[in-house]
Design brief:
Elements (H helix, E strand, L loop, with lengths): L8 E3 H8 L3 H10 L13 E3 H14 L2
Antiparallel strand pairs: 1-2
Helix pairs in contact: 1-2
Length: 64
């Protein structure tokens, strides 16, 4: 998978806020393969805001 442009990458805190979950949930999603983490090992994790928007939309449509 190609890394998205720099302007689309956000840190874990912002990713959690964008989707409406905790930072711990973002980390769990990474370990389960639900979301893609960008960044070198032992460095700051970053996430594609467009991928996060898709997840947020899915979560809203699945909500009761």
């Amino acid at each position: 998978m190609t890394k998205p442009p720099r302007h689309r990458l956000v840190p874990t805190r912002v990713a959690a806020l964008a989707v409406g979950v905790s930072e711990a949930t973002i980390r769990k999603w990474v370990s389960r393969g639900k979301i893609t983490r960008y960044g070198a090992p032992n460095c700051r994790s970053e996430f594609d805001i467009e991928e996060l928007q898709e997840i947020a939309l899915r979560r809203r449509s699945e909500a009761p």
